[in-house]
Amino acid sequence: MKPIKLLFVCVHNSARSQIAEAFLNYYGEGKLIAESAGLEKGILNPLAVEAMAEVGFDISKNQVDSVFEFYKSHKLYSYVITVCDESSGQKCPIFPGVRDMMFWI
Question: Of the N and C termini of the chain, which has fewer Cβ atoms inside 10 Å?
Answer without folding.
Answer: N
